[in-house]
Amino acid sequence: MGGTLLLLRLQQILDSQFPIGAFAHSWGLEAYAQGGNLSQRALYDLLYASLTQGSVGLEGAACALAHSRAGRPKELLELAHQLAAWTPIAGPRETSLRLGGRLLRILSRLYGLAWPSSVPPHQSLVTGWALARLGLPLSLALPLYLQSSLMALLAAAIRSMALSPEAAQEILTQLQPHIATKAMAILKDPDGHFHTATPGWDFWAAVQPHLETRLFLS
C-alpha cells in the first residue's frame, strides 16, 4: 500500500469524528464536571491520568494487543474478557461495545472485514484488529489512536464545562509529549500497560446515569 493511501486510511479510521456515535458519550466526564467544578488545569490532570493510568492507556494497550493477535480468535476472546474485567463500570463497558459494534459495521461495509462472531466487539479491540487486517502499522496508528481518544474527551468537555475549543487545543498540545511517551511504552510492552487505576473516573462514570439532567448517555 502506498504511503499516501496508508496515511489517509489511518486518518479516516482514527478520526475522533468517525461516525460511530462517540459524540453522545462523555465516559463520566459530564458527571465529573457537574460534581467537581472542573478548572482547565484540573481537566488537564484528569486527562493525563486517563492517558497514563486510566482508560485511555488501557484501551491503547488493548488496541496494540488486538493488532498482534488479529488472526487468533481465541486470544481475541480472552482479551475481550480481560478488558471487560478492567472496565468495572457498566456505562463505559457498554459504550465500548456499542461503539465497537458500530465501528465494525462501518468497516465491514467499507472494507469487507469480518470480525469473529464469538468475540465481544469492544471498540479498542476492533480498532487494533482492523488496523492489522488492513496492513496499517501500529507504530503510526497507536499515537493517533491515543490522541483521538483524548480528543473525544475534550469534545465532551467543551459541551460539559466552561472550556473553549481553543483552550481544548492548548490542553491537547500539552498532552502530546505524554501521548508520544505512552505510545512508545505500550509498543514495547503492551501487556505491561494493560491495566487501569483511576477510581475517581470510575466513581463519576457510575454517577453519570443518575444525573437529573445530562447531555451524554455515559
Tally of helical segments:
10
CATH superfamily: Urease accessory protein UreF
CATH architecture heading:
Orthogonal Bundle
Q: Point out poorly predicted stretches.
A: none
Indicate the proportion of strand residues: under 5%
Tell me the total number of β-strands: 0
Biggest sheet features:
none
**CA-atom Rg in angstroms:** 16 Å
Ends distance: 38 Å
Helix content: 55-70%
Mean pLDDT, to the nearest integer, reads 91
Which structural class is indicated by helix and strand composition? mainly alpha
Q: Give the tally of structural domains.
A: 1
H/E order of the elements? HHHHHHHHHH
Shape: globular
At the third CATH level, what is the topology name?
Urease accessory protein UreF
CATH class: Mainly Alpha
Pfam families: UreF (PF01730)
Family: Belongs to the UreF family.
Function: Required for maturation of urease via the functional incorporation of the urease nickel metallocenter.
Subcellular location: Cytoplasm
Could you describe the 3D structure shown?
The protein has 218 residues and is mainly alpha-helical. The chain has one domain: Urease accessory protein UreF. It is 68% helix and 0% strand. It has ten helices and no strands. α3 (40-52) packs parallel to α9 (165-188), α4 packs parallel to α7 and α4 crosses α9. The chain is globular, with a radius of gyration of 16 Å. It starts with a helix and ends in an 11-residue tail after the last helix. The mean pLDDT is 91.
